[in-house]
Amino acid sequence: MSHEFRELLKKIGSGTHTHKDLTRAEAATATRLLLTGEATPAQIGAFLIAHRIKRPTAEELAGMLDAYEEYGPLLPKRDLPGPLIIFGHPYDGRSRTAPVGVLVALLLATAGSAVLLHGSGLCPTKYGLPLEALWRGLGVEWRGLSLERVGQLLEQTGLGFLYLPDCFPQAQALMDYRDQIGKRPPLATLELVWAPYDGPFHLIAGYVHPPTEATMVQLFALRGIPTFTTVKGLEGSCDLPRDRTAILNHAGKRLLLKAHDYALAGSEIPLGSPEDLIRQMQHMLAGQPCELTPAALWNGGSYLWHLGHAPSLEEGIQLARELFCSGRVMDKVRQLTHLVQPSYL
């Protein structure tokens, strides 16, 4: 048993009226003890549920990210065309609506940005469809790649994906606790705001509840992250909704985007089988209209504009359409399929 961890657990788990928040240094210590396994299973489970009930502060999350930076992977700075675009999607995936994050990443890389995603396989508590499975469905296998190889691919293709079980097994080992307590602990918030890159980046983080956004903004200030965008996205992802106004916060500036203004509004696309979604994605890549088209154009066009590839949102949507229909996005998939060769295959 870790006596040091027990004292931190007592501090946050003392009840509604007597608990105390951790300092940034204490939160970093607690996370270190979680990652190294110095805390016992009983202590880890108690800490995760107590911290969820208490709700994490921005200072605590900053300390937890400090520990992630110390013990987790950090991609060295690479020769990229601009700041690396890092998307923070929930690792436990989607269960209700069809994700288009992979298509958006391909589109941005085709337009000239460098994009990094990170995630895992099936994760608790939702056990929804993860982005990694969609990449595999398109023939791109990110599992088994070294950190160095991911950095090389970023330079070569403008795309990278860090697969948690390979690149950060200490964090992956905590997934079982999430399943056992039946709730997302504050560790799940780190997935949205983790930026494992030692160079300039633009962090795009999804969220569900408005208080989470406020905490994120405070966290970015504490961590010295000047360039960020928060997105009230579908199921906490970075995917923009079409059936309501999309709410973004770009480094303190509020953006309200309406798909209705661009004839792309409609009901959100329900998530069917993974095989059906992959077929729709392949139709998009081939420039063929499909059920996924409005969501892909709305998200792709919005991000192309937001990240400087088009002077207006309308022109961003048109550029997205042209890139899909011309086959250039499909060419990016072919490039990745050719270059991404995990060591164990």
TrEMBL record:
Any Pfam family: Glycos_trans_3N
Assigned keywords, A-Z: Glycosyltransferase, Transferase
Residue ranges occupied by any Glycosyl transferase family 3 N-terminal domain in the UniProt entry: 6-70
A GO molecular-function annotation: glycosyltransferase activity
Residue spans crossing the bilayer: none
Record InterPro entries: Anthranilate_Pribosyl_Tfrase, Glycosyl_Trfase_fam3_N_dom, Glycosyl_Trfase_fam3_N_dom_sf, Nuc_phospho_transferase
Name of the protein described by the UniProt record: Anthranilate phosphoribosyltransferase family protein
Organism phylogeny: Bacteria, Bacillati, Cyanobacteriota, Cyanophyceae, Thermostichales
